[in-house]
Design goal:
single chain, 15% strand, TIM Barrel, nine-stranded parallel sheet, extended
């Protein structure tokens, strides 16, 4: 065979190998893409993961509202919760365990909010002012026999955190602060009390909190205050009591981590605390995981003899 013929044959062989390699690569690529598409068609739940930062940094966790609540079906969530059975906890026989649930951060959306309104046990809805759905949720919540309180936005110690629209800031004048309090309550109808949204810098400041409480008493002396305890050094609860307001403090944060096992654990912690001390205030947030765990587990807790009450029942008995 001539040298030129061998060269031509070798070139043809190389060309055939290249064509075959490209075909095999394309086939594998398509196979991978098909598998990926098939996997994405399966039930998948993507929730924002939030580290448990503790009470003093809890406000930073909720600096921005999570707009998307991505889930597939209630049936799948219920399936996940099948194994989340309640543990037996012993308590004092002379104590009636009572738990009040506050759901914070309402006003950004309606999908989860409407689910929370449909729960057939007492829930207190804490609504931020000036948001798109603040008024709607306050009105619908009232119609659905839910309790409405104001979620008052206040400055955090971390200056990079956005505490929400129209928040009270430490540099504001007394007049500005007093006016904001009035504006807040005018923005959210049907309110019978309030708790702070963020506010670690403000709740530590007795002078500013005094302005706030004086205005609250002028609006309605029967309004109550729940200290969300975003700061261990908060002065708000003691000052509110000193000024004659009905006031209580949050005991348990339910969902610093947006994970059903974590939320279940916090709920069991609240249950244990209620059986030891009687009355417990739990704060959760406008999240789909929180809704499903409450819907699934609270009826079981009620069957065990734990009373679920509005937060006003506890606040108004704390005179």
């Amino acid at each position: 065979m001539k040298k030129n013929d061998r060269i031509i044959i070798n070139l043809i062989a190389i060309l055939v190998i290249l064509v075959m390699s490209i075909g095999i690569s394309d086939l594998l690529s398509k196979s991978f893409r098909n598998k990926a598409c098939t996997a994405s068609d399966q039930p998948a739940y993507v929730f924002a993961t939030i580290n448990n930062k503790g009470p003093e940094e809890a406000e930073e966790i909720y600096e921005s509202k999570k707009d998307e609540h991505r889930y597939q079906s209630e049936e799948h969530i219920d399936f996940i919760l099948e194994d989340l059975s309640l543990q037996e906890i012993s308590g004092k026989k002379d104590i009636i365990p009572r738990i009040a649930f506050i759901i914070d951060d309402l006003g950004y959306e309606t999908e989860v909010a409407e689910k929370l309104m449909d729960l057939d046990f007492p829930i207190t809805l804490s609504i931020l002012p000036f948001l798109k759905y603040s008024n709607y949720i306050a009105e619908q919540g009232k119609e659905n026999n839910k309790e409405i309180i104001l979620h008052m936005p206040m400055e955090a110690k971390n200056s990079s955190v956005n505490p929400g629209p129209g928040a009270i800031k430490s540099y504001m004048s007394e007049k500005e602060i007093r006016q904001k309090v009035h504006d807040y309550f005018n923005s959210v109808p049907n309110t019978i009390g309030m708790n702070n949204h963020m506010g670690s810098k403000i709740t530590e400041n007795k002078k500013i909190m005094r302005f706030i409480f004086e205005e609250i008493k002028q609006i309605d002396p029967n309004l109550f205050f729940i200290d969300s305890k975003t700061s261990q050094d908060s002065q708000a609860y003691d000052l509110a009591r000193e000024m004659g307001l009905n006031a209580l403090e949050r005991n348990v944060f339910l969902d610093n981590e947006d994970d059903m096992d974590y939320i279940k654990g916090q709920l069991l912690k609240a249950k244990e605390l209620s059986m030891k001390r009687g009355e417990v205030i739990v704060i959760g947030h406008d999240k789909i995981n929180t809704y499903y765990v409450l819907k699934r587990m609270i009826p079981e807790m009620i069957n065990e003899g734990i009373e679920i009450v509005f937060v006003s029942s506890l606040a108004n008995s704390a005179k």
